[in-house]
């Protein structure tokens, strides 16, 4: 019997594809988008792409990533897929949940 191959961490130069599922301009959706863009700009070490999907305009898109609550952030690439639900205000928890390589947080002077 052979052991299962070990999973390797995502390559640091691979593009991180993030999908943010929202419901129009609701306060939680707006907060989630703002928190996500700030987090990506400040902490992501890898190149990234954010795709925002408004389920009020495209409800059928929820089926593709099995979205049950909004806002939901899905890391589509690199695989395996990961999800985080909520307004994404806790950046460390979001990064941990998505298993994304980050740059070290800088200390405020």
TrEMBL record:
It comes from the Bacteria. Residues 19-100 form the KaiB domain. PANTHER family: CIRCADIAN CLOCK PROTEIN KAIB2, KAIB-LIKE PROTEIN 1. SMART domains: KaiB (SM01248). Transmembrane segments: none annotated. The lineage of its organism: Bacteria, Pseudomonadati, Pseudomonadota, Gammaproteobacteria, Chromatiales. Gene3D superfamilies: Glutaredoxin (3.40.30.10). SUPFAM superfamilies: Thioredoxin-like. Pfam families: KaiB. Coiled coil: none annotated. This is KaiB domain-containing protein. GO terms for biological process: rhythmic process.
């Amino acid at each position: 019997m052979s052991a299962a191959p070990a999973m390797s961490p995502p390559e640091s130069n691979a593009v991180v594809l993030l999908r943010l599922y929202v419901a129009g301009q609701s306060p939680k959706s707006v907060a989630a988008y703002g928190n996500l863009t700030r987090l990506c700009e400040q902490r992501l070490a890898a190149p990234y792409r954010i795709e925002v999907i408004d389920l009020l305009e495209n409800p059928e898109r929820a089926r593709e990533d099995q979205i049950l609550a909004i806002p939901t952030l899905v890391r589509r690439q690199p695989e395996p897929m990961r999800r985080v639900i909520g307004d994404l205000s806790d950046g460390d928890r979001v990064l941990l949940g998505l298993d994304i390589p980050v740059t070290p947080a800088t200390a405020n002077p």
